[in-house]
Each structure stands twice: as structure tokens, then as C-alpha cells.
Amino acid sequence: MANELLNVQDLETVFNTPDGVIHAVNGVDFYLKEGETLGVVGESGCGKSVTMLSCLRLVAMPPGKIINGIANFKGKDMLSMSEEDIRHVRGGQIAMIFQDPMTSLNPVMTIGRQMEEPLLLHMGMNKEQARKRSIELLEQVGIPRAGDRLKDYPHQYSGGMRQRVMIAMALSCNPQILIADEPTTALDVTIQAQIVELVIKLREQLGMAIIWITHDLGVIASIAQRVMVMYGGFVIEEAPIKKLYSDPTHPYTVGLLGSLPSTQKGARHRLYSIEGMPPVLYQRPQSCPFAPRCRWVQPICREQLPLLENVDTKHTVRCWVDIKTGKVRA
Questions:
Q1: Spatial contact of 104 and 126, defined as CB atoms under 8 Å apart
Q2: How many CA atoms within 13 Å lie on the side-chain side of 6?
Q3: Is the pLDDT of residue 2 over 70?
């Protein structure tokens, strides 16, 4: 069995705003094993990105604050590390690529300088070694004439090429975990497919573990082995990818899958729409946060917060109701 790289327990993060305290992450537990790809899905505002940013202590404080939890990376809690120790983990051992490469890259620094910086900092290379490694990395992610392109600035690259640069930068220090925060959202469909194919190829070559954050269950199907669905700052369902697609157990997961168009020949079905809006959590939920939008809702759902419980081998769900019968679970 693969060794466990990351284990997060009871993570809670809040944000102080002029309107009150927003409870963005509410006791999240998850793990990641060596070489595994974990998909994290849910609509905007459900806590996906804040969960991962909290683990790396990249949440701006203030207004954010991590008020509880443990994030063990190879047995060491990142939330209690010194600033110097966590800097060596970020970029060096755990790397992150973001949704919009144009805002992630410095517009007034050349690509070469931005590529070389982590190599000088984390890998102890000299300038010439860093330049040579930067060219290798850009070639690895499919940038043509890599040596010449190091002198260019981000605006001289297309959106897809900028995202490839971000992937190359993330891989520069041979991280054990790559966190990809909706890296294809700002790209057109053709480029999305190329980026997903590139990441799959690099995962197989390098053997790194990946956390892929997205709202697109279609993308997750081609890249992840296991999926974690989030809503209202909670993990509400988790299962192996095939199990989740064939037998979704939480009403929210059913809604997400129902909103996907079918790719099967001749298949016709009405796309499902989840009515209502995600909650703005000025108080930590004491009942099911999805209850106001759920078509299977029962009185207990509005009164008590369900626990994350096993419904099958490696399949957990946070829901009071068995959606196959419409009745409260025994």
C-alpha cells in the first residue's frame, strides 16, 4: 500500500469581514497517498481552494484565520511549523498552480527569471545551472524554442503557454505533491484537454501525488482515482472515482452529476439544475448546509448536522437520508 503523504484533520478557517465572520472551512478531514490523484469538487464558495491554501498557510491573515486543525505532511504538522520551515515545504516539496496564470506570473519579470528563482532558493543551483534546468522544464511541458523564450515576458505567451509555464515552475523542485487549483478554467476547451493530458503524462513520469481542485466533474473523470465533494465548507461525500459516478449517495453529488451532458451515443436526458444558492456562512452550520436546496430533505436535516459516515468500502457520505428510499438512514 502506498504511504500516506498528507493527512489533514478537523481543519477550520474563518474570515473576518465588515458583515461578520465567515466560516469558510468547517472541520475538513482528508488524506493523500504517494502517487495518488485526489479530485476536489464543488461549486464556487464551497471551501475547496481555502482548504488547500490553509494547509500551506497561504491564507492572508488577517482577514483569514486558521482556528483549528492539523495538516501532517510526512508526519510533521505544517500548521505549527516555523515560517522558515513552511517556506521550504512550499514550492520545494508541495507546489501549487493557480487558476489564472496571468495574475500568478509577475508581468514585469522575464519568464526565465521567474523560472530560475525557486531553483536558486530551494535547489541551491547557481545561475547557469538554474538556466539550464529552466530550459529543460519548459521543453518538458511543450514550450517550443525554450532557450529563446526565457527572455520573454508573460504577455508574450498565450493563455495555454502561460499555464504550461506555471506547471513547469511548480515541477522545478521535484515536489512530492502538486496542488492544481482549477488550472484549466480560464482556458478554452481544446487547451484544457492538452493541459490535462500533460499533467497525466508528467504524473506518470515523475510519480508525484496530485490534488486537482475543480467544479468540473468531467475533467476529474479523466485524471483522478478518488474524489472528495465539498459543500458549505464540509466534505459531504468521498469515494473512488468509478464508485462516485456509478452510485452517488449525497443529493448534492447527484445534482452535480445530473448537470453533466451525456457523451453516450443516442443518450438524451434533461440536464439537472440545483435550485438556490450556496450559503454564506456567518455562523458555523448546526444542521445540514444543503437542506434548503435539497429535494430529499427531511425534518432532521434542518435540525442536526449529519456526520461523515461509511456507506460502503472507501465510500463516505454526510447525509441523513438514503436517497434510494427517500427515508432517514437507520
A1: no
A2: 26
A3: no
